[in-house]
Amino acid sequence: SSGRVVMALRIGQTAGVQRSLSGILFMVAAICLGLAAGVWWMKFSVLSPNDTTGATHAILSDDEIRAEVTTVVTAATAGTLGADQRELAAFVEGIIASRAGAAVTGGLIRDAHARSIGMDPDPVRISGDQMAQIVRDERVAVLDPVTLPVPEITVLRMLRNSIGWLTLGLLGIGAICVLAGIVVRPERFDIARGLAELAIAIGTSLILFGYLVPVFVLPALNDTTWSTAVARLALRTLPLVLVTSFVLIGAGGLWWLANRGSGPRRPTWNTSSRSSAYQPIRRWS
Predict the structure, then answer these.
(1) For a pLDDT cut of 70, what percent of the chain falls above it?
(2) Tens digit of pLDDT for each residue in 54-79?
(3) Which of 35, 77, 238, 275 to pair with 285, CA 20 to 30 A apart?
(4) Nearest C-alpha neighbor of 140 from the set 151, 153, 154, 126
(5) pTM of the model
(6) 133 backbone dihedrals φ, ψ, rounded to 5°
(7) What dihedral angle (degrees, nearest 10) is formed by the CA atoms of 41, 42, 43, 44?
(8) For position 264, what pLDDT does the model report?
């Protein structure tokens, strides 16, 4: 009858949003674990200084950072080399902009990044040997070290100091929710949808903390030259972040849709009495 068809359609529409207690707990766990993954990735990719060529080249791709290093090195070495400062600056900038130059300035840029995020309170010094490698002339190796003016960025220091506790807290909440969800005896579809939501949460969190926050939010909170280093490091890993995120979100979304109608189907009214009111009464005469 038409009443039963309408009932079936309404039940099908509401079945995808019905959740048991275990389903809610698994959803909360997925959100917490996804956020923990994204926050950890941000710390690993942009708040952990290293002297690799790739990371150094990414930071030195910023025009202002490269100009600052060039200015300091040129001012310190031009007199000893008897060179025109503009010509020497053009030469130095060409060196440090290349991957070969990034290989010899890795330690210097690592120290500068560490100071900017509050890991190392000591000033950043460029030694004579480092300047000799940059200008390609051993005559400047005997020069005294010069200071690269890198400020400590308070917001980055506070973020890095708190990010470990934030990650542990999110992991703890997520683990508790998973255990609680298991204790209340979840159905198979609750587990399936929880795994799908975990994949979606991780993918979304990677885009948020692996791209949007370090590229747009953190540099906007501080206008110093070295605040853009985190953005450059995030852009370096952007292809990996995007591919991983799209795969996780796509796979999780398809899996969630596949299990969307697997929940319990609970009609909200008595269909038998309602439909029987429209049954014609047939009597034998």
Answers:
(1) 85
(2) 999 999 999 999 999 999 999 999 99
(3) 275
(4) 126
(5) 0.83
(6) -70, -30
(7) 50
(8) 53
Q: Which of 185, 189, 58, 75 is nearest to 134 (CA)?
A: 75
- Asked whether the beta carbons of 92 and 70 are under 8 A apart, the reply is yes
Half-sphere exposure (Cβ direction) of 179: Cα atoms closer than 13 Å: 6
Strand-pairing partners, residue 147, are 125
Largest pairwise CA distance in the chain: 125
| C-beta of residue 244 within 8 angstroms of C-beta of residue 206 | yes
| Rounded Cα–Cα distance for residues 100 and 119 (Å) | 27
Length of the chain: 285
Question: For residue 24, what are its two tokens?
Answer: 């809610």
DSSP 267: -
pLDDT digits (tens, 9 = 90+) for 37-48: 999 999 999 999
What's the rounded Cα separation, in Å, for the pair 249 and 207?
A: 11
- pLDDT of 15 > 70? The answer is no
